[in-house]
Amino acid sequence: MTDTRRRVKVYTLNEDRQWDDRGTGHVSSGYVERLRGTSLLVRAESDGSLLLESKINPNTAYQKQQDTLIVWSEAENYDLALSFQEKAGCDEIWEKICQVQGKDPSVDITQDVVDESEEERFDEMSSPGLELPPCELNRLEDLAELVASSLPSPLRREKLALAVENEGYIRKLLELFQVCEDLENREGLHHLYEIIKGIFLLNRTALFEVMFSDECIMDVIGCLEFDPALPQPRRHREFLTKTARFKEVIPISDPELRQKIHQTYRVQYIQDMVLPTPSVFEENMLSTLHSFIFFNKVEIVGMLQDDEKFLTDLFAQLTDEATDDDKRQELVNFLKEFCAFSQTLQPQNRDAFFKTLSNMGILPALEVILGMDDVQVRGAATDIFSYLVEYNPSMVREFVMQESQQNDDDILLINLIIEHMICDTDPELGGAVQLMGLLRTLLDPENMLATANKTEKTEFLSFFYKHCMHVLSAPLLANTTEEKPSKDDFQTAQLLALILELLTFCVEHHTYHIKNYIINKDILRRVLVLTASQHAFLALCALRFMRRIIGLKDEFYNRYIMRNFLFEPVIKAFRNNGSRYNLMNSAIIEMFEYIRVEDIKSLTAHIVENYWKSLEDVDYVQTFKGLKLRYEQQRERQDNPKLDSMRSILRNHRFRRDARTLEDEEEMWFNTDEDDLEDGEAVVLPSDKMKSEEDLMEPISKFMERKKLKDTEDKEVLGKSSLSGRQNPSFKLSFSGSTKTSLSSPPSSASLNPGSPGSPGSPGSGARNSPPTTTVTTKGGLVGLVDYPDDDEEEEEEEDGETKEEPLPPSKKSKLSS
């Protein structure tokens, strides 16, 4: 059945005692073979999928609330609710439930909730229903004691609720309240406070509907004013009748909607302000009150959404220039409250709500409102804009990009937001902080959509950097034209810190857009002017900005920094800070330590060559001496590539017990990278001792001399291999693929790829600038291994094929040859 009578929403109660919307569909009842009984079935109206299949259990307590709600528990902590669009549909399903359980459809609950012990349950069930004392002034104390004693027992609580409901007891109590208040009977008023509070804790919808009716609700609030724990009564009724005013900015023609708004406001006030904060044991007793408010709000938002005339009039008056300022302020405040109201809705309802507002033209209306002079109106419009950005940032981005095709940059919505951030008059910049957060959300690539036809990130960032970035950076550029900030008051410093925070976010999350902007506009140099600010937080923001740039390890940025000598203001700030151990000191040292640890060679060389004199006397940390050591090692590698290669031999070779020729040693010597070696140390085999560089140079020299003398013999061993340029620090080596011997050492020890000490492809090499010392060319996929003589005797023995002994490691041979 697909008519609107059976149209329902399915809700489940979550752990936070809030109702979660599980979907909208159409309910029916029928026999389900699998469940072996009559069941409730709800099929989704979107795709016909099964939202709910629940057997009508004869022992389950079903409650009917507010004429359009049916609530029940499937398990101990699993509550369900069906919210009907029409009362007629609710009545039909309720009759079916009552028919299955053999109950009269006129009742609002089909079962008594029983979870007592067997003995207590027998005693309670064998006793007649709860009898209430007469509603008289002298019996109020007895009634208060009865209510207090019934609350701990679910069965007694249920019987008390039925008795109060059936006898119309609430209206009699409220009449008695008026008598006590006229007589100023404080004791009777205190008893009535305890009684009414206890009735709230009975958690029964039928009682709430009586208490929250127009004729009863103010007297109920009056009863709750006389808390015995307080010396004087509260004045809640006075606030609700005199202070709180209901304003109809747009006339509401529907009396039911108006009544629902009044009721919801008052019940919300009772929950938040009148009722005492419930204890841990009482918290779940007010779940029905939460549900009452929740479903009222859903109804109000739905009724307003469906009233197209109301929303059309609202937006027409908002954007009409003839609307006076007071009226416009009321309209904006209503829209703000309307949006805040929607935050309690479930995702599906909230989507429908904001979609309706979008179709009505809320973004163009906000653009008009934000352009007005009234600070309060602009503040409310900002709050509304924040709801929209949090709900759907892509919708806002699409609007501003379409708008840019028709309007000038000055009146774009996003530029208005930036201008309000810059011009915030609040000394603490509360509004600016809020707007900066919204801009950050809009600029965050994580929530940008990507489809087959277009990429939102590319389109929006291109738009932003073309039309909006100059507006955002204008205060920064205007304040950094000299060596020191031209304005350095607290409010300006706060604003610049916010702008820097947003620019730092862009450096982290945007790629070439922000890079082009920083380099073309020389932004980093202007930002570093702020390191001279008297406000430490602003100077640290500038340092953080530079640190993020260095952390990218992008050579474009590094060349820009070196070309403009942008470490100079940082060094100057470090020296001006002196020996003080503070955040500024730590932040600057951490930046240089990062460069040292990550071995960013270009920046290391630039810092040592240009600023070493300013840093050499800093000895309380080893950062700057470590930078100098890195620099010297780098220069040493460039000047002595042969020494670098020899270190590679020592680092990568291990003892080998299998029968291998010296050709393996030769290949390792030419192919091995030195990057696994820690700077400043040479690794030899465990049995070897560390040798000084002088000791190492001697066998290298001897080797080179022998190479010159034995060139012809080498060619015979290597076939077509050639070795040229031996006097030059850069070697070029070619191998044929004829040799079948292969390397058995791990790839990490000896790379088969053409490489050189310090080549970029090896771990830890960073972006080294030292020239390659070896180039290897292979043919046929096999690497020809070089056989070179470390010793004339060994060479002769190898050629004659007489020696079968295991070859010595190169470190041993170095010792022998020396």
Key words describing this protein structure:
Serine/threonine-protein phosphatase 4 regulatory subunit 3; seven-stranded antiparallel beta sheet; 55% helix; elongated; PH-domain like; P4R3-like_central_dom; 818 residues; PP4R3-like; protein phosphatase activator activity; PH-like_dom_sf; single chain
How are the secondary structure elements laid out?
Layout (H helix, E strand, L loop, with lengths): L6 E7 L5 E14 L4 E8 L5 E6 L7 E3 L3 E7 L2 E7 L2 H15 L16 H9 L13 H11 L3 H13 L2 H15 L2 H16 L3 H7 L5 H7 L12 H8 L11 H20 L12 H20 L1 H12 L5 H18 L4 H13 L2 H9 L4 H17 L1 H12 L8 H10 L7 H14 L12 H12 L1 H10 L11 H20 L2 H10 L1 H6 L7 H16 L3 H9 L4 H10 L5 H15 L3 H15 L7 H17 L1 H12 L9 H10 L21 H17 L1 H8 L3 E3 L7 E3 L41 E2 L14 H9 L9 H8 L1
Parallel strand pairs: 9-10
Antiparallel strand pairs: 1-2, 1-7, 2-3, 3-4, 5-6, 6-7, 8-9
Helix pairs in contact: 3-6, 5-6, 10-11, 13-16, 15-16, 16-17, 16-19, 17-20, 18-19, 19-22, 21-22, 22-25, 25-28, 28-30, 29-30, 31-32
Beta strands, count: 10
Briefly note the structural class of the backbone. Answer: alpha+beta
Average pLDDT number: 77
- What overall form do the CA principal axes indicate? elongated
Question: How would you write the strand order of the largest sheet?
Answer: 4-3-2-1-7-6-5
| Unreliably modeled segments | 113-126, 653-662, 672-696, 714-818
Q: Please indicate the percent range of residues in DSSP E strands (runs of 2 or more).
A: 5-15%
Number of helices: 36
Distance between termini?
101 Å
The largest sheet, given as strand count, sense and whether it forms a barrel, is: 7 strands, antiparallel
Radius of gyration (Å): 42 Å
Residues in helix, %: 55-70%
